[in-house]
Design goal:
The complex is a heterodimer of chains A (298) and B (355).
Chain A (H helix, E strand, L loop, with lengths): L1 H20 L4 H14 L7 H23 L4 H12 L10 H28 L3 H16 L2 H14 L6 H26 L3 H9 L4 H31 L11 H12 L2 H30 L6
Helix pairs in contact in A: 1-2, 4-11, 4-12, 5-6, 5-8, 5-10, 5-11, 6-8, 7-8, 8-10, 9-10, 10-12, 11-12
Chain B lengths: L2 E10 L2 E11 L4 E5 L6 H9 L6 E6 L2 E2 L10 E4 L11 H10 L9 H14 L15 H14 L4 E5 L7 H18 L2 E6 L2 H7 L2 E6 L2 E7 H6 L4 H6 L4 E8 L2 E4 L2 E6 L8 E6 L4 E4 L7 E13 L2 E8 L6 E7 H7 L6 E6 L2 E5 L2
Parallel strand pairs in B: 3-8, 3-9, 6-7, 7-8, 13-20
Antiparallel strand pairs in B: 1-2, 1-4, 4-5, 9-10, 11-12, 11-14, 12-13, 14-20, 15-19, 16-17, 16-19, 17-18
Helix pairs in contact in B: 2-3, 2-4, 3-4
Chain lengths: 298, 355
């Protein structure tokens, strides 16, 4: 404990000295040192949380300090934030972060349906269904998403199918994430003990009802964390559809940045928006786990 | 409902799990499928349930051939060794589940389902646990819920696969008694698998003794215990003294001692074994020469209640041990003490040729 405290004091001093060196504010450096002094007298129970809070605070302040060094225009960021968020419609449709969110939600829903379908095909003993599913999963997991998006957007018109950028992006994301979700679903289903299925049969259930009432409810609870992971990942990968000229968050950020040479401001602002969206997903996921995890999770 | 098993065989790869099994089980009985692990008893139970398909043979439940009948249509209740309760449902929902998933025209009303579940929860004495999840229950409680779940759909036959196998000794004892009482109330034809001979003797009406995929013996519990039909039955059901020797002139020669035999006697010169349970033999100081008497040395006497268990060894070959069960009076009357030479008196035995 003594050693930890010593390290803490040193760290706080370091932060203070660094802040001093960066000439942010003398009061700031002094208050950092004072804070560290306080923690030595903190009750043991809250000690850990206090430490964590302090670490986060320090990181935030450091990041702020770094940010200040760039001499970026905070005013410009604030001014353009509504545009990045997509608070106004463009040609009667969503744009910015709203569009990113829309694309992600639609894609993850479609990908879930496809993923479940291909997982079941993969688990079936039918050679054709198994073969198709194995190929699909292998191909879409094994090639870059950017490539898939371009093939769909640029390749399909060559065979006479023209498709708008937004649907093309949704299709690409759906197909790619469907492959990942298929594997997640398969693992979830296979994790259900065989006894559960036999118990269902012995009670008179047919295969479909066994899947619907016994296997899926348990499997779905098991796969909430990895699916949540995929969803967050999808939100960020939706940036890739900007190459097709879709006016989503990354596209708009780059557009503003290019026009006014405030590139860095726009990238940071967009990054913060993505991050806040991801955090809100994490919170939703935690609530779902807590609510539906009863019984299945020990 | 009666259950008939007709020349059922099943192999897993090159392993013959069931080898031409024939059984005729009366309705309303509680039957134990007893045998060592790997003998095929669980496979037989699963074949009867329709969870496995036999390679050959037929299962006839209540006069109806189940050849093409899937497990879900056989109307059997199945209780698994590891409970297999639905983890995502409360205790109440687990029991109600079999009723809820019935086809619309067969499904009872919600009120009837609730009443039935309440009734079963009372039967298994767990009505206060209705809203809990299986993970929150103890092993014994889970198994009782599993039984209630199996009974909810009013099965014709109740099948239990080592129902107490995963429970600790104390709980196992309680549940045995409880299952026996439950069966006395319900009289539903039941088969339970066990490798524990005490469990089979204590709980069942009838025992089906299985070994290496074959039925060794079928009969009422007392019959099977008192009159084992094979050497295996002797060895597996309750401890027995074993006498090994060669058949000579209608006797089994154990060392120099001829033992009298009854029943079918193997041919002269055959190596054979015979068995006698500890309570079927006695100890004597001297002999007339007419009895089958093996010279022994008494090693130890343990008194428990009114019974005395005597451990003895063969006088010439001390690695051969015998066990004798006497009452206190018999033990006192024999005037024996430990370390003393004596004779083990054996009645007429049945000899089994050693293959």
């Amino acid at each position: 404990m003594q050693a930890t405290k010593a390290v803490w004091l040193l760290a706080a001093l370091g932060v203070g000295v660094l802040a001093e060196a960066l000439v942010i504010d003398r009061w700031f450096s002094l208050s950092m040192v004072a804070l560290t002094g306080i923690q030595a007298f903190f009750p043991r129970q809250q000690y850990f949380r206090f430490q964590v809070a302090l670490v986060l605070l320090a990181i935030l302040i450091l990041a702020g300090g770094l940010f200040a060094q760039f001499h970026l225009s905070l005013d410009y960021m604030i001014e353009r934030t509504p545009s990045l968020l997509g608070l106004e419609l463009r040609d009667g449709f969503l744009q910015g972060a709203a569009l990113s969110l829309f694309i992600s939600i639609v894609s993850i829903l479609l990908a879930s349906v496809i993923g479940l379908l291909f997982a079941l095909m993969r688990l079936s003993l039918h050679p054709v269904l198994f073969g198709i599913s194995a190929f699909y999963i292998s191909y879409f997991r094994g090639t870059p998403l950017l490539l898939q998006a371009l093939v769909i957007y640029l390749g399909l018109p060559q065979v006479g199918i023209t498709i708008d950028a937004i649907p093309a992006g949704i299709i690409a994301l759906t197909l790619c994430y469907g492959a990942y979700l298929a594997e997640i679903f398969r693992a979830g289903i296979e994790a259900i003990p065989k006894g559960q299925i036999q118990a269902a049969y012995a009670l008179g259930l047919n295969r479909l009802n066994t899947l619907r009432c016994v296997i899926l409810p348990q499997a779905l609870i098991l796969i909430v964390p990895p699916v949540g992971n995929q969803f967050i990942s999808m939100l960020k990968d939706s940036a890739l559809v900007s190459v097709m000229g879709v006016w989503e968050l990354t596209f708009i950020a780059r557009m503003h940045g290019r026009a006014s040479f405030h590139y860095m401001e726009m990238m940071i602002a967009a990054g913060v928006i993505y991050w806040l969206l991801s955090i809100s997903f994490e919170l939703v996921q935690a609530r779902i786990e807590a609510r539906y995890g009863k019984g299945v999770r020990a | 409902m009666s259950i008939r098993v007709q020349s059922v065989s099943k192999t897993f790869g090159s392993f013959r799990a069931l080898d031409n099994i024939n059984l005729d089980l009366e309705p309303g009985k509680l039957v134990a499928l007893l045998g060592p692990s790997g003998c095929g008893k669980t496979t037989l139970l699963r074949v009867i349930a329709g969870l496995e398909w036999p390679d050959q043979g037929r299962i006839i439940i209540d006069g109806r051939d189940t050849d093409a009948v899937h497990a879900r249509e056989r109307q059997v209740g199945f209780v698994f060794q590891h409970y297999a309760l639905f983890r995502h449902m409360t205790v109440f929902e687990n029991i109600a589940f079999g009723l809820r998933v019935k086809a619309k025209d067969e499904r009872p009303s919600e009120a009837d389902i609730t009443a039935r579940v309440r009734e079963l929860l009372n039967l298994v004495q767990l009505d206060w646990q209705a809203d809990r999840y299986p993970a929150q229950l103890s092993g014994g409680q889970r198994q009782r819920i599993a039984l209630a779940r199996a009974l909810a759909v009013r099965p014709k036959v109740l099948l239990l696969d080592e129902p107490f196998g995963a429970l600790d000794a104390q709980v196992r004892k309680e549940l045995r008694k409880w299952l026996r009482q439950l069966h006395d109330e319900l009289h539903i034809t039941s088969i339970f698998v066990t490798h524990d001979q005490d469990e089979a003797l204590e709980v069942a009406d009838q025992i089906v003794l299985v070994n290496q995929g074959r039925v060794e013996q079928v009969g009422a519990v007392q019959d099977v215990y008192d009159h084992p039909a094979t050497a295996f039955a002797y060895k597996f059901l309750g401890g027995a003294n074993r006498f090994e020797g060669v058949i000579n002139g209608g006797h089994l020669m154990v060392g120099n001692t001829p033992l009298k035999l009854e029943g079918l006697v193997p041919a002269n010169g055959t190596r054979a074994e015979a068995f006698a349970r500890p309570y079927q033999v006695t100890i004597a100081n001297n002999i007339t020469g007419a009895e089958s008497a093996i010279p022994i040395t008494i090693q130890r006497a343990t008194i428990r209640g009114n019974m005395v268990r005597v451990d003895a060894t063969h006088a010439q070959t001390p690695q051969q041990v015998y066990e004798v069960e006497l009452t206190r009076e018999q033990w006192r009357g024999s005037g024996q003490t430990c370390g003393q030479p004596a004779f083990l008196l054996v009645g007429s035995l049945r000899a089994f040729a050693i293959q």
